[in-house]
Write a structure and sequence with these properties.
mainly alpha
Length: 98
């Protein structure tokens, strides 16, 4: 897959966790993932499969607070992948690439 999608990239466009509903966050993650896959000119079927899996992993593996914390890290130009919650779901995100 030429399209590389990290947890940090997934969260760049996430709606702010405060006041956002779970559906808002899910749609934001999914839409951002699909847009990045299209921009990378990756196979649409592979993008759809990966984005669906990655969105499910993030939705089930992270709380809105954790997403908000990661978003703050990104806004401050810090590495959100160093956070415990990012490390916790990283293996499941990697499995989505298979």
């Amino acid at each position: 897959m030429t399209f590389r999608y990290t947890l940090a990239l997934a969260l760049l466009m996430v709606a702010p966790a405060w006041g956002a509903t779970a559906l808002d966050v899910r749609l934001s993650i999914l839409n951002d993932c699909v847009a990045r896959g299209k921009a990378a000119h990756d196979d649409p079927a592979r993008v759809a499969k990966y984005c669906s899996c990655a969105t499910d992993v993030m939705e089930r593996g992270l709380t809105l607070y954790e997403l908000g914390e990661m978003e703050r890290y990104l806004a401050e130009k810090r590495d959100a992948n160093s956070l415990p919650q990012a490390q916790r779901i990283a293996p499941r995100l990697q499995a989505c690439r298979k």
